[in-house]
C-alpha cells in the first residue's frame, strides 16, 4: 500500500509539472537589449564620453608629433612618426620667463605646496568634524555656521586682505604662505564632509566607547579613524585636485622662483617669443594634469563610497 501511495504521489507530481510546461513560461518577460530606453541611455553616455575624450585625444596625438607634421593641419590624424622630444622639452627645456628649465622646477614647487597643505587641512578638518558630530561643546552650532558661511564665500574677495595678513606675518611670496592659504580655504568644506560622515556612523559605537571609559582621542584613533577611509579619500582627492590645479593663488601669493606648475604652464603656453610649438604646449598640459588624474583613477571607487556615505545625514 505504501508503494502504491508513493507511486500515486509521483504520478501527480509529474502531471502537475506537465501542466505547467504546457501552459508556457511564467514570470516577467525579459527586457530587450536594444530597447528604446537602452539606446537613448547608452547613446547619451557615448556622446558625453566622446565630448570629453576627443580633446584629450587631440592633445595626446599632437604631443607625439613633430612640428612639420603639425603644420600639415590635420589635428585628428595619428602621428606618422612618434617622437617624445616635445615631452622632454616641456619637462626640462621650455622657457618660462627668464628660466628655461621647463616644468621640472614648477613640479617640485607644487609638490612642496601640495603635501603639507593636504596633510594639515585633512588632519585638522577630520578632528573638527569628529568633534562637531559627537561632542556637543558650547558654541558648536555657531562654529559650524561660521564654517558653512566660509565654505561658500568667493575666495576672490578675500585676496587683498590675505595679502596684507601674509605681508605682516613676513611670509608673503613664499611657499609657506601659500600652504597656509590652501590649508585655511580647504578646511570649511572638508570639516562639513567629515562632520556629515561621522554623524552617519552608528552612534551606539560612540556611546559604548564612552561607557567603557574611552576619551576624545581614544575614540577618534581606535574607532572613528579605522572606519573613515572612504571620506579621507574623498577629502584627499578634493584637496589634491583643487591645490594642484590652482592658478590664481599661485600667481598672487608666490614669486617667479617659487611658481607652481600651473603658473609655469601658463607662461609656456602664452609665451610670445619664438615659434609657437603646439606639441610642447600639449605635452606640458598633459604633464601638469597627470597627478590629479592618477590620484583619482587609483582611488575612484572609494571616492564614490565616501561621497555617498557623507550624504546620509546632515
TrEMBL record:
Domain ABC transmembrane type-1: 107-299
UniProt family annotation: Belongs to the binding-protein-dependent transport system permease family.
Species annotation: Xaviernesmea oryzae
PROSITE patterns linked to this entry: ABC_TM1
Membrane topology: Multi-pass membrane protein
Location of this chain's protein in the cell: Cell membrane
InterPro entries attached to this UniProt entry: MetI-like, MetI-like_sf
Name of this protein: Carbohydrate ABC transporter membrane protein 2, CUT1 family
Family annotation (Gene3D superfamilies): MetI-like (1.10.3720.10)
GO annotation terms (biological process): transmembrane transport
